[in-house]
Design goal:
Elements lengths: L2 H7 L5 H18 L10 H14 L2 H9 L7 H16 L3 H15 L12 H13 L10 H13 L3 H15 L10 H9 L9 H23 L29 H14 L23 E7 L6 H12 L5 E8 L6 H7 L3 E5 L4 H8 L5 E4 L6 H7 L6 E5 L13 E5 L14 E5 L13 H5 L8 H9 L8 E5 L11 H10 L3 E7 L4 H18 L2 H4 L2 E5 L3 H9 L3 E3 L8 H8 L4 E2 L10 H8 L14 H5 L2 H13 L1 H14 L7 H15 L3
Parallel strand pairs: 1-2, 1-4, 2-3, 4-5, 5-6, 6-7, 8-9, 8-11, 9-10, 11-12
């Protein structure tokens, strides 16, 4: 039997599967034929040798070659490693495939991104197919760490059920003392309990995974209280504390779940919830009493959404009232944003997750500790779990309650919070009158963007190909600029309604084809939309552009006839950037389960958050539904005059959203008051 026949013999017998596998096999073989022989000790030579060794199944030689790489690697090498691992799955060589996957992940951890040049979507769609067809019996005898690596890869490929199966195998292996495992049984149990897909097929899929997470947390908590499950200090890592970042996109009230997670960790590792400072006024030298000691803690004090929203307020707090401490984790990185927030402040860098870091923060004797975002980074959650300052505060950098008794306040705004929905926070909700953020004016050339002098790579060619089939006029861009993982299945109906409702509407999304999970998200969204629309002509009006540079992104928003703000998780920084270029954004605030930022920003500008839509028998009900959001978007698409008027109004009033002095004054007043609270 030939090599190709052997590869195909492990696939199901359908013609489609064989065609996919054959194309993949031949493409990878062609690519591998270009690998040069190692001729020197250069980075690429080491990696080329690792590729060749991995393909031969010589794991030790491949590991030795990768370990010899000391400088940043070419992305192409990582991509080829991933392709080699897939080829080995085709060749029914699971152990070598796992070794190659581990090598690829090791290289990726050095800063590279995943993908496969020349194959792109073919690679990932085939990978999903092959992973599904794989016989699990082949993996008997694989060690714990290999199961963990496979689970992570399967999660990226959009196969969460298969990933959970490997986590269960990893846990079983970890119980064997002779097995080599980097994670303890407790760490794997907690990771599995909090495991959440990056993307969901349907509302039922959301419900199923939500129920699993809640059940697993309850089971792990019961095991802990029975004395059968613990985490030691060495276990406290991003693996055992993966957070609930993806859970927020389910669109549910996360208060009870967040409290359950906090209680689970309190049981698993009691020192997590210790108090290192008294909850009483701190006695200091009378000369120091005039200044409030306030600390701001984050792992994202760099060019990041968290810093864009809050670093301005931190740097502009009046120093005649405050002694400011900027506390950042060791992996925060450094750039111009980092330097800016550290001006006229005491900068403290602390090691991620280290117990001594908690002691160092407590030693600052802060009156108030502000953590703008909890849930995006393991270290901030770990520190937030402890009492490190007399008063501890969070905000909506990650807009989900902490569930922790150590966090006293959640600072939001009357602009963003509904009046009748107070059960989403375990903290005391603080409603500012201002937005509470100090967002800088974008550093891009806004004038050039507004004058349409900045091109958007791929957009013109995509619209030109679509325009050929349109007789009524040019295409109208409906931008959906949020990350694809934020797009809930319930939001699909809005997308489908917009496609049906206007023959020139073109939905445009952004993604990164070099990242496997992005390709998976794109494929899943395409399938969901095709199922709803059931019209090939309409699905041709769905475009995916590659990730854009900052100025190009603003030009993309400017080119949009309408920008859709999704639900249940809407936009924040993206919305501000849209308003900076006067983009008409439509939102359904009552359908959002996080702070309603777009609607609040419209109110801050003195504008209606929902543009006029066609009349209905029950206008209020309709406007607060998915159909109402679609109608609002369609009203702007059909009425060019109304669209131009809204854009003009935004242009005239957008300045109130940027560099907001009122937010600084309100933070200053509130922090001084809360510092005096006994």
């Amino acid at each position: 039997m030939s090599t190709t026949d052997n590869a195909l013999s492990i696939l199901c017998s359908t013609k489609v599967m064989k065609r996919i596998a054959t194309r993949l096999f031949l493409a990878v073989i062609a690519m591998l034929s270009t690998i040069a022989r190692p001729s020197s000790s250069s980075t690429m030579s080491d990696l080329d040798f690792a590729l060749s060794a991995a393909f031969r199944g010589d794991v030790n030689a491949a590991l030795e070659a990768v370990n010899a790489v000391n400088s940043p690697v070419e992305e192409d090498a990582l991509l080829r490693l991933r392709c080699v691992s897939l080829l080995q799955v085709v060749l029914n060589r699971p152990f070598q495939a796992v070794a190659s996957l581990n090598l690829a992940r090791k290289v990726r951890n050095n800063g590279q991104r995943g993908g496969c040049p020349g194959l792109q979507d073919l690679f990932f769609s085939s990978a999903v197919t092959l992973m599904r067809l794989r016989d699990e019996v082949q993996f008997q005898g694989i060690e714990c760490d290999e199961h963990v690596a496979i689970a992570a890869e399967l999660q990226d490929l959009g196969l969460p059920d298969e990933a959970v199966s490997h986590l269960e195998s990893a846990h079983a292996n970890s119980l064997n003392r002779e097995s080599q495992c980097s994670h303890t049984p407790g760490a794997i149990t907690v990771h599995s309990a909090l495991f959440c897909p990056h993307y969901f097929h349907s509302r039922d899929d959301v419900t199923r995974w939500r129920a699993r997470i809640e059940t697993k947390i309850a089971n792990a908590t019961a095991l802990c209280h029975a004395g059968h499950l613990r985490l030691e200090t060495a276990d406290l890592s991003s693996y055992s504390m993966p957070g609930t970042f993806d859970v927020a996109y389910m669109g549910r009230n996360d208060r009870n779940l967040s409290i359950s997670v906090g209680r689970l960790y309190a049981c698993l590792h009691p020192p997590l919830h210790r108090s290192l400072v008294p909850i009483t006024a701190i006695t200091r030298n009378p000369k120091e009493n005039k200044l409030v000691r306030v600390g701001f803690l984050s792992a994202h004090f760099r060019r990041h959404s968290v810093c864009k929203l809050w670093c301005g307020a931190i740097s502009r707090l009046p120093r005649e009232h405050f002694s400011v401490y900027v506390i950042m984790s060791s992996d925060n990185g450094a750039d111009g944003w980092t330097a800016g927030v550290g001006q006229d402040a005491t900068v403290v860098r602390v090691a991620n997750g280290a117990p001594e870091a908690s002691v160092a923060i407590a030693a600052l004797q802060l009156d108030v500790l502000v953590i703008p975002a909890i849930g995006m980074h393991q270290s901030t959650y770990l520190w937030a779990s402890q009492r490190l300052a007399r008063m501890q505060v969070m905000s909506w950098g990650h807009p989900v309650t902490s569930g922790l008794p150590s966090i006293d306040y959640f600072v939001s705004s009357d602009l963003f919070e509904p009046q009748d929905d107070l059960d989403r926070y375990s903290e005391q909700l603080v409603r500012f009158e201002s937005t509470g953020f100090v967002f800088p004016w974008p550093d891009s050339d806004i004038d050039a963007v507004l004058a349409s002098n900045v091109s958007v790579p791929g957009l013109d060619s995509a619209l030109a190909s679509i325009r050929g089939g349109m007789t009524q006029g040019p295409p109208l861009v409906v931008a959906v600029p949020q990350a694809l993982m934020k797009l809930h299945p319930d939001f699909d109906q809005v997308l489908a309604s917009v496609l049906r409702g206007h023959p020139r509407s073109v939905l445009v999304f952004l993604y990164d084809s070099a990242k496997p999970q992005h390709v998976t998200w794109r494929q899943r969204l395409e399938k969901r939309l095709a199922f709803l629309v059931k019209d090939e002509g309409m699905t041709k009006r769905v475009v995916f552009l590659e990730r854009l540079q900052p100025t190009q992104f603003l030009a993309f928003l400017r080119a949009a006839a309408v920008v859709l703000d999704p639900f249940p998780f809407g936009g924040g920084v993206t919305t501000l950037e849209g308003f900076a270029v006067c983009a008409p954004i439509v939102s359904a605030p009552s359908l959002q389960t996080v702070p309603r930022l777009a609607a609040g920003m419209y109110r801050r500008m003195g504008l209606n958050s929902t543009p006029p839509s066609p009349p209905h028998d029950n206008e209020h009900l309709k406007r607060n539904s998915a159909d109402g959001l679609a109608d609002a978007a369609l009203a702007l698409l059909w009425n060019e005059t109304a669209r131009a008027s809204l854009m003009d109004d935004i242009c005239k009033r957008r300045h109130v959203l940027f560099n907001d002095d009122e937010s600084i004054l309100e933070w200053s007043k509130w922090l001084q008051n809360v510092a005096k609270t006994e």
